[in-house]
Amino acid sequence: MPEALGQGEIDTLSADADRFIAELDEETYLHYAGLKESYDLAPIYERHERLTQLDTALALGASVDGDRRRRELWKFACEGYLGNFVSEEEERVAELEATLTATVDGEEISFRMLKPRLGNEEDRDVRARVEAARNELTEEHLNDLQLQAAQVVQRETQQLGAANYADLYRSFGFPLDDLAEQCRRLLADTEDLWEEAGDRFFRSRLGIGLGELKRWDLGRAWRGADWDAAFPAEAMLPALEVTLAELGIDLRGQQNVELDLEERPNKDPRAFCSPIEVPERVVLVMKPQGGPADWRTLFHEAGHTEHFAHTAPSLSPEERRLGDNAVTEGWAMLLEHLTIDPVWLERRLDFPRPYEFAAEGATELLWLVRRYAAKLLYELEFHTAEDLTALGPRYVELLSGATKVEPAAVDYLGDIDEGFYASQYLRAWALEAQLRAYLRERFGNAWFSRREAGSLLRELWAEGQKPTADELLREVTGETLELAAVADRIRESLAAV
Ligand SMILES: [Zn+2]
Q: How much distance in Å is there from the Cα of 304 to the middle of ligand 1?
């Protein structure tokens, strides 16, 4: 049994974790913003070696003693320890993804462009061949590495003193079993709703019913190209600025928020937020492309940005940087879902058929929530399985059951979120649905245009991630977090058409 650490040692580790995360966030920013070609994580890990050593993780584990900050630091050290073991496999997977290519109909396509290609390809038969090429590369080059990494994590989790990965996260306070129960209920309660709404959605976007739809058609449906004209690239940032201004936030005037708008050849086209210093330096990076999905991503990342930028500097590193990520994801979704809110869309006077678009957005949300519910149930089985290689058929069964579209069996290893992040998204969707219901009740359906609503948000953002999503919701509304609230929110949008 390792000995508990003294407060002085814990404070030193906490300060080190703060720098470790800042350096990782800055490196991520520089690389993905196209400011630095290489992505050098290894030297950062070396500088903070102590935080990824088994002894440190075990000693922190022995020091928790019911203290939340210490538990967060312990979780961080455990994740660092496991992450260090699989970094080689992960780097190799990333390298292969960046260099592999497939030839489809005589055209050479790089691995990372295969998925985007599915979204832009109009011919179904070509889409099927692109998908087949992607699966072939995954099976031939990636599955072995992914399996190795998963087996190492399984083995090393036991070094950390937990029977399996699920138990480890239970000991971090993740309510996995209660959530799994809510997932089963949501899947049963919304089954008919999905079959009906999903069928209508795919018919309207692609002319294909849910029964005939194949997985290679999905990207094209989500792309929503018919709505592109309503979501122009040049109007994205102005729409965000106006929305925040109505809440009392002057985006351009925020000293601690950097907007990275510059064009660079290697800049990731997807918007992202790098909270390098919380709250002193938060970067929102974007390269506006336009289209409904691009708008949603920008508003999502702006939600993270405002949350971190308003976090009180007096909080501890654990409360500013660690804690329950369902909180920051919930804030991100609150802003993201403005772009599928019919009242928000209606206020943009030029928007055609806002209720129809909002219903499509709600259908997409239903797909996501059902898919993630099934993913969580699958991941719980995966992380307690004896033989990982036998899980392909189970993956297909659970995911098909939820979405009614058969996934590719070769994704049974790659479609796993590290650290049960699927559970954070699920709880964040619930938090968003319940907070939004509260905001509408208190400030009206156009709550996002009310200063007072903005004041309340700023007050809550200041709490950083000190409270969990459950505590935050209880503080504001007195309710408990319920996945069923997401289904109610979706039903309302669907009924308004
Ligand atoms: Zn997010």
A: 7
